[in-house]
Amino acid sequence: MKKFLKILLVLVPAVVVVGTATFLLVYKYKNTKSEDGEKTIIVEVPDGLFDGHKS
Fold first, then answer.
1. Is the pTM of this model over 0.70?
2. Taking a C-beta distance cutoff of 8 angstroms, is the pair 41, 28 a contact?
3. Helix, strand, coil: what percent of the chain each, to 5?
4. How far apart, in whole angstroms, are the C-alpha atoms of residue 55 and residue 45?
5. Contact 40, 33 (CB under 8 A)
6. How far is CA 11 from CA 14, 15, 29, 52, 53, in A?
7. Comparing C-alpha atoms, which of 19, 14, 26, 52 is closest to residue 43?
8. How far, in Å, CA of 31 to CA of 40, rounded?
9. To the nearest whole number, what is the mean pLDDT of the chain?
């Protein structure tokens, strides 16, 4: 039971963060239009996020 609670303590914040990020991306995508009228999205990613090294 304790192991289950530890897993929950890790998973719940992770799901909340991912859900919030996804919501913000979708919200920003819907409200961002370029000059030619097509929808665009700009995502700023910190250096080293995808290669696993801290910048």
1. no
2. yes
3. 55, 5, 45
4. 11
5. yes
6. 5, 6, 27, 20, 23
7. 26
8. 9
9. 75
